[in-house]
């Protein structure tokens, strides 16, 4: 008897940007209560998700590999193993992409939330990427290492989940951590400050050969809600007003510039464009392509009719 498959194919997808290869790696997804979404009622939000055929308030978790100049950078590190049964697949997908942890020489952090730093260290506190320099925005490091900011969080479990775990996961990289405020952070990669979700939340513009891709981090968590309704914010936003303002600015920018982008919480493989629709916007996920450039024209003149 033929066995039925019990798992999907590896979550790996490549995109060529000039001479740079960006690889999306799927870490999994998290289904979270609607109470984590603010400025929209649970009923309205649930109806919008239902209309989009989504079973729940589902947030995908992605990370990205950048191969440039003979070097390898990882953008974010996912949730790590053991967080939830539906996440923690980054290590397996990194291996499927042909990259060993010791080959990663730079880890670029969009920000320090558990679904981004969880995969930096193992349960024994050892660095999973032993040769990597870790880079993050100076404001991000300052905030999560600020004891006064930590003490303003009344809930002890939440305090440990965000502040405590951020410090423990970054600890093995202490001697090889550097900060930036913008500018070049890796060959062909420029840091773009996008504050609000966290104080040092950062996107990364990948550019080569006249092509570019913006890895926009956590501009949206639930695209079915936040793209048609950019005023919708998340309970984990440190500065909700700034997060909304940044989201509206980036929506306008990528739509006006026809800028390709990718996101940590867009549905895998997470590459997309933005179109204007009336007074709002519409997400246009890039079609799966066998061509690594994604939008290369195909000459069909030699095809044999089916």
TrEMBL record:
It holds the Pfam family Lactamase_B. SMART domains: Lactamase_B. InterPro entries: MBL_superfamily_lactonases, Metallo-B-lactamas, RibonucZ/Hydroxyglut_hydro. This is Glyoxylase-like metal-dependent hydrolase (Beta-lactamase superfamily II). The lineage of its organism: Bacteria, Pseudomonadati, Pseudomonadota, Alphaproteobacteria, Acetobacterales. PANTHER family: QUORUM-QUENCHING LACTONASE YTNP-RELATED (PTHR42978:SF6), QUORUM-QUENCHING LACTONASE YTNP-RELATED-RELATED (PTHR42978). Residues 60-265 form the Metallo-beta-lactamase domain. Belongs to the metallo-beta-lactamase superfamily. Gene3D superfamilies: Ribonuclease Z/Hydroxyacylglutathione hydrolase-like. GO terms for molecular function: hydrolase activity; metal ion binding. Keywords: Hydrolase, Metal-binding, Zinc.
């Amino acid at each position: 008897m033929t066995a039925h498959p019990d798992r999907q194919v590896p979550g790996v997808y490549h995109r060529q940007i000039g001479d740079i290869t960006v690889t999306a790696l799927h870490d999994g997804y998290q289904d979270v209560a609607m109470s984590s979404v603010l400025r929209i009622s649970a009923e309205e939000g649930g109806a919008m998700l239902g209309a989009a055929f989504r079973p729940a308030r589902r947030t995908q978790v992605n990370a990205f590999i950048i191969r440039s100049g003979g070097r390898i950078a990882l953008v974010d590190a996912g949730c790590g193993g053991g967080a939830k049964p539906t996440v923690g697949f980054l290590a397996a997908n990194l291996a499927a992409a042909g990259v060993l942890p010791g080959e990663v020489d730079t880890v670029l952090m969009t920000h320090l939330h558990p679904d981004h730093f969880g995969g930096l260290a193992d349960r024994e506190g050892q660095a999973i990427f032993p040769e990597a320099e870790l880079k993050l925005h100076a404001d991000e490091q300052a905030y999560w290492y600020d004891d006064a900011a930590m003490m303003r969080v009344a809930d002890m479990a939440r305090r440990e989940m965000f502040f405590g775990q951020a410090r423990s996961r970054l600890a093995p990289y202490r001697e090889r951590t550097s900060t930036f405020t913008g500018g070049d952070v890796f060959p062909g990669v420029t840091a773009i400050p996008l504050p609000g979700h966290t104080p040092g939340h950062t996107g990364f513009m990948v550019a080569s050969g006249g092509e570019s891709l913006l890895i926009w981090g956590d501009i949206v968590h639930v695209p079915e809600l936040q793209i048609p309704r950019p005023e919708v914010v998340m309970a984990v936003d440190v500065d909700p007003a700034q997060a909304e303002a940044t989201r509206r600015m980036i929506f306008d920018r990528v739509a006006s510039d026809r800028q390709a982008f990718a996101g940590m919480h867009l549905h895998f493989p997470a590459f997309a464009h933005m179109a204007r629709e009336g007074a709002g916007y519409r997400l246009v996920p890039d079609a799966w392509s066998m061509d690594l450039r994604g939008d290369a024209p195909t000459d069909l003149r030699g095809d044999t009719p089916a």
